Amino acid sequence: MKIVVCVKHVPDPNLPMTVDQSTMRLVRNPSASILDPADEFGLEVALKTVEAQGGEVVAITMGPAPAEDALRRAMAMGAERSIHIVDDTLAGSDALGTARALAAAIQNENPDLVICAVESTDAYSGMVPGALAELLGLPQVTFARTFEVADGTITIQRATETGYQTIQASLPALVTVTASVAEPRYPSFKGLMQAKKKPIDAKSVADLGLDPTTVGAAGAKERVVSVELLREEKQGEKITDDGGDSVEQIVAFLKKIQVA
Fold first, then answer.
1. Distances in whole angstroms, Cα of residue 222 to Cα of each of 53, 88, 208
2. Are strands 173-177 and 113-117 parallel, antiparallel or unpaired?
């Protein structure tokens, strides 16, 4: 079985993120960027599946040269090899342009399964997996909280607001996984050392046979027109017990908000 896992090199979500107001793009500092934590869950279920059934896990990413670090991390976790789509032409790609590049590389792999996170932790659009499934002509099962592959079929429990649905699809397929699907492993020291030596298959736009006008800023159909800081406003009412009537004030407030 061959499983391709889409991964991304993102700004560390534990650090402040800034936006370049002239380009409306995130400022990406390679030294403060990591493998997207959301992608580690997909890597883990891919590795477990291959360990149980045989095959290989291939990590793939699109991004500038520093994105190689995300692939090294994925290989340190256990991915057999990796593909890096790297080309200056890809700068400014929207979700569809990103999906086009990924699909072109994945088609050449002819995988049994493609795994993605539900969404990345830098953009949070959640649009790439669906576009990718469409371009690859694959059935898509989403929000997997459990994951099982057997007899040419993938079975998942799809997380919903009220519980879950049991979904099945024939392979090949594309699946998006949630953080509850597995507990990602930590790379061993041996894995980290081996990952440094593994080759990375770099692919350009030309290598993939893509029309440069369909990717990058030239092919983008969407654009960010403004970015605003989200301000959190605390709701509530401060009650000071100056006259010994704090209980009455609290009861009145609860009735006002229809709690009491």
1. 41, 19, 23
2. parallel
Please check the confidence at residue 79 and state whether its pLDDT lies above 70.
yes
What average pLDDT does the structure give for the chain?
A: 90
In this structure, are strands 56-62 and 153-159 parallel, antiparallel, or unpaired?
unpaired
Instruction: State yes or no: pLDDT of 24 exceeds 90.
Output: no
Nearest to 117 by CA among 50, 56, 35, 12: 35
Domains of the chain, by residue range, sit at 2-219
- CATH topology (fold) of 2-219: Rossmann fold (3.40.50)
Question: pLDDT category, 207, cuts 50, 70, 90?
Answer: very high
Q: Could you tell me if 60 and 43 are in contact, meaning their C-beta atoms sit under 8 angstroms apart?
A: no
Torsion sign (Cα): 166, 169, 171, 172: negative
Q: What is the CA radius of gyration of the chain?
A: 22
